[in-house]
Amino acid sequence: MAELLPLEEAVRELVRDGDSVAMEGFSHLIPFAAAHELIRQGCRHLTLIRLTPDLIYDQMIGMGCADRLVFSWAGNPGVGSLHRLRDAVEHGWPHPLELEEHTHAGLANRYVAGASGLPFAIVRDYLGTDLERRTANVASIACPFTGERLAAVAALRPDVAVVHAQQADREGNVLLWGIQGVQKEAVLAARRSLVTVEEVVDELGPGGPGGTVLPHWVVTAVSASPGGAHPSYAAGYSSRDNHFYQAWDAISRDRDRFLAWMREHVLEGGAGKPQASPEEAHLGPA
Amino acid sequence: MAELLPLEEAVRELVRDGDSVAMEGFSHLIPFAAAHELIRQGCRHLTLIRLTPDLIYDQMIGMGCADRLVFSWAGNPGVGSLHRLRDAVEHGWPHPLELEEHTHAGLANRYVAGASGLPFAIVRDYLGTDLERRTANVASIACPFTGERLAAVAALRPDVAVVHAQQADREGNVLLWGIQGVQKEAVLAARRSLVTVEEVVDELGPGGPGGTVLPHWVVTAVSASPGGAHPSYAAGYSSRDNHFYQAWDAISRDRDRFLAWMREHVLEGGAGKPQASPEEAHLGPA
Amino acid sequence: MALPETSLAAPSEDGREPRYTSSEMMTVAAARALPNGTVCFVGIGIPSLAANLARHLAAPDLVLVYESGTIGARPSRPPLSIGDGELADTASSVVSVPEIFNYWLQPGRIEVGFLAAAQLDRFGNINTTVVGDYASPRVRLPGAGGASEIACCCKQVIIVMPHSRRGLVERLDFVTSVGYGSGPGDRERLGFPGGGPSMVITDLGVLRPDPGTWEMTLTEVHPGVEAAEAVAATGWELKVDPRLARTAPPTERELSTLRALDSLGW
Amino acid sequence: MALPETSLAAPSEDGREPRYTSSEMMTVAAARALPNGTVCFVGIGIPSLAANLARHLAAPDLVLVYESGTIGARPSRPPLSIGDGELADTASSVVSVPEIFNYWLQPGRIEVGFLAAAQLDRFGNINTTVVGDYASPRVRLPGAGGASEIACCCKQVIIVMPHSRRGLVERLDFVTSVGYGSGPGDRERLGFPGGGPSMVITDLGVLRPDPGTWEMTLTEVHPGVEAAEAVAATGWELKVDPRLARTAPPTERELSTLRALDSLGW
User: Fold this and answer.
1) How far apart (Å, rounded) are the C-alpha atoms in residues B229 and B282?
2) What is the CA radius of gyration of chain C?
3) Domain ranges of chain C
4) In chain D, which residues touch B (CB < 8 A)?
5) pLDDT per position as a tens digit, D27-53
6) Residue ranges of B 253-282 with Cβ closer than 8 A to chain C
7) What tens digit of pLDDT does each residue of D188-198 get?
């Protein structure tokens, strides 16, 4: 039964050092404000899980939160590389990062299996690729009816799932719409879940295409975080800040410039403060 | 790419004697008008597939269309037995009916596997029940990661899926909303598909909770059939005719009364006629 | 749905005409078994009636989940089928049938599953498939539907059925849904996420699993019922809990609410 | 997204300044490969640009499917990412990521899948994972994403990439997505529903699989390009089809439409 908590308190209650944490949102509804709170609270030794690490994990990896990354496509979409992620993988800065990489289909179905209470799921890809032998949690399985060989992927049960949505009501029921990604699966697969929302409303709705409700009894905590997806977006509330995605390329290329940006916009911008106002949450590029 | 066809022509083109036919709709949106057209065209030796055979298959079985039934719950919901189905199983009238019975979860996931292009799906039930040894297309499988034993169900690929929906546009895109059942999965699993709709519109929408669009390129034929779900219903267009479900119990108990009813309301009511008008489609109890 | 007919009826406390039928007692006992806020998987019939009765009494925040994919339905009219529009219109979420089973029931998210049974054995295993031989049955019943998944996966299962030797049998003609299998360890061996049947509520009393043997044992009798009556109406040698309790009779409020729902066709 | 920079350019027919860049030729050739009505799985970059160019030219009814779950999107503004709101707002259906892979891509419903590649070998296998050793890579690339499923399951795959010895290599550093594996029979053995790569469109020409060996063979060169140039820019011993054709240069309409899209940020 979801508790409505300030973001700082929710992160403190739900996330522990060493946890596996899935912060999902497929280009849309990426929970940046929550990630910044994890960074401010100095979370360490996390296993970060996400189909598309994106800028959100580039920032967390660069700030030393993660020991391990489980992912399927690591780039700055339409722009180029994730420089902090590459620096960790290629040069071990700020420290080495262990990778477990999948295909989108495989990782999405690891969440599906977790959400379904099954120990594994089956998919067609991986076969014939080097992922098949490189990647943990992938195995071969034969169809008991046809003998056909397929790939099995192990269920994911993250300690915590963090997602962003448009609305929650006062009971903690959550409504999200637009591009849905794997948020529902991540929340249902996780042991605990935190949903940041654009606003808490008396009555949910009306929503839009792809609308989905997460009932309050599968959500652990809800935190109001208007603008909390920036530079990603929340359909009906904001647009994707493509300019910031482009600007991040230069900010993140250099370790010092990255650290300066994080200090100014994340560490000092939010530390110890009450829940960010809409203006504060809208962190523009440096 | 969906063709818009009169129902009589669509059934003639899509359904052949001996086909496996899945007519889905979970209490809501059951394609009765299409079933009546199959009965009028004298379809024979069908394998009928449906989670809840309901009155629609009681009528088809009683009229001798089916050799085989694949199902998971056979009753008149909230009323009692399906007497024509029981007469076929218990007394071989009008001829014997072979049964393949599943659990809802198992049969739903047989469609899911078919829709997903996988040869099987895994579920937790069947284990420990007599279904496990009685039912074809169920096998035991071990998780390659944990060793845990689960049930595997074989994918379903019906020759034809028939469903009813609220709207189609002139391209053949289909919109349905309300209780969704397994219609999407049945259409995506089948080799051919027929969708009857309440109305053909210039632009789809707005729909309601549970709204789903089947794009025109996964549908073979669309037929306008206003009221075509009666005595089931189409959210936004009609209500479930609970009175008819209750009246069916007496109509169907007796072979002669059943045959007289079918003759009057289905065979003579629709044979050789053009597409039923809304009034004709609304077949009241005798 | 109308309540099942029954000739049993509890006498009123002053010995005059029965104040309520034994079937009403059964429904009230089922409603009481649902604490407020419980997430409950309900089928049509007594389970839906009992759950909605609870919602009108002590459990206004009961979360009703129907296998038609309606989550958090708050019907104000009685559904005849689990797919009635009323359930979708009042639900907080409407999902597909594969999703309701895969994401909601199978992982063990549901706290209480309500089941009916044509036959039940001493370990709470259930038959809703056939009476007689499978290949040429005396009576062909509806089959499994969602029941075997509910029995497998809900945290606890409550079974509601009339008490008779035809229903509570020594040996099932067909095992449709698993209770405790053949005793301790079987659910674990099968890897079931749910805890199994916690109560069998009949029109005579309540059976609960013995914590050592998992055998369904008479722990409660309804007002006016003697343990011997329940034992006689059971097809196996029903054990009686030495601390046998007596169900509190329906309160005026329980009865009037139930009858109001029933008169509306619930 | 801006077109990749390139120094290659085709001369105009009268020998004056080039009328278009080789990269524009590549995009136009990719757009032409999409017949009207095709159901097409597109990623961001050249694939999305080419597919939307086709939609503005000969293929107005192209069905665009993006891995963000937007089916039938008709964007009027350029998406920077596959998850741009424009794609959801203009789609006929928006589904979850598991669904787009499980119900739409995996069963082989998609006719054409567009892929980019960092490295490609003679059998159309693709590397988008690492350059160098996996454990300590020289360059860490984005990884598989949807590419390996697209390569496995689309009826045909069209690969668009600049032509260079660094890209078209003898041996991949990592096999991310399977083309024809090590030759005939491999896709069948792997049970893949899709047909494999039908074209590799580069800025120099077009490679197609030899129907006997499945080896990617130069079948077409763009205007102003000689076969020897393409062979020299290929890391394996590129075979040249004896019936080598020459790509028709971009028409005025193709070029002006492409440039209009490009100037809008496509």
Assistant:
1) 9
2) 18
3) 18-263
4) 37, 39, 63, 71-72, 92-93, 102-103, 106-109, 153, 193
5) 999 999 999 999 999 887 888 899 999
6) none
7) 999 999 999 99
Q: Give A8 to chain B, closest Cα distance, Å.
A: 34
Half-sphere exposure of D166 (CA within 13 A, CB side): 7
CB spacing of B150 vs A119 below 8 angstroms: yes
Q: Which residue of A has its CA nearest to D108?
A: A124
Q: Which CATH superfamily is domain B3-101+157-281 in?
A: Glutaconate Coenzyme A-transferase (3.40.1080.10)
Q: Which residues of A touch B154 (CB under 8 A)?
A: 145
- The tens digit of pLDDT for each residue in A105-163 reads 999 999 999 999 999 999 999 999 999 989 999 999 999 999 999 999 999 999 999 99
Q: What is the mean pLDDT of each run of 10 residues along chain A (286 residues)?
A: 95 98 97 98 98 98 98 94 96 96 98 98 95 93 97 98 98 95 98 98 88 95 98 96 96 98 89 38 36
Q: Is D57 helix (H, G, I), strand (E, B) or coil?
A: coil
- Chain B residues close to D39, C-beta within 8 Å: 217
Q: Thinking of the domain C18-263, which architecture would CATH place it in?
A: 3-Layer(aba) Sandwich (3.40)
What does the pLDDT average to over C99-113?
A: 97
Active-site annotation of C, residues? 67
Token duo for residue A256:
């010092």
- Structure confidence at residue D16 as a pLDDT band (50, 70, 90): low
Query: Which residue would you say has higher pLDDT here, C45 or B235?
Result: B235
Q: Strands A66-71, A192-201: parallel, antiparallel or unpaired by DSSP?
A: unpaired
Mean pLDDT, range D203-219, rounded to an integer: 97
Size of interface B-D (CB pairs under 8 A): 36
Residue of C nearest to A188 (CA): C103
Candidate from A119, A144, A146 with C-beta closest to B143: A119
Residue D48 dihedral angles phi and psi, to the nearest 5°: -65, -40
Q: Does B201 touch chain D (CB under 8 A)?
A: no
Residues of chain A contacting D119 with CB distance shorter than 8 Å = none
DSSP string, chain B: -PEE--HHHHHHHH--TT-EEEE--SSSS--HHHHHHHHHTT--SEEEE-SS-HHHHHHHHHTT-EEEEEES--SBTTTB--HHHHHHHHH-SSS--EEEE-BHHHHHHHHHHHHTT-SEEEESTTTTSTHHHH-TTEEEEE-TTT--EEEEEEPP--SEEEEEEEEEETT--EEE-SS-TTHHHHHHHSSEEEEEEEEEESS-----TT-EEE-GGG-SEEEE-TTTTTTS--TTT----HHHHHHHHHHHHSHHHHHHHHIIIIIHHHTT-SS--HHHH-----
Show the tokens assigned to B55: 């009155």
Cα–Cα distance for residue pair B187/B185, rounded to 1 Å: 5
For B27-71, the pLDDT digits (tens) are: 999 999 999 999 999 999 999 999 999 999 999 999 999 999 999
Minimum-distance CB partner of B129 among C1, C69, C176: C176
Of residues A1, A188, A213, nearest to C103 (C-beta): A188
The pLDDT tens digits of the residues spanning A184-200 come to: 999 999 999 999 999 99
Any C CB within 8 A of B243 CB: no
Tell me which residue has tokens 């609308």. Answer: A211
Domain ranges in chain A with CATH number 3.40.1080.10: 3-101+157-281
Determine the pLDDT at residue C265: 72
Residue pointed to by tokens 């049998």: C169
Catalytic residue among D24, D67, D149, D215: D67
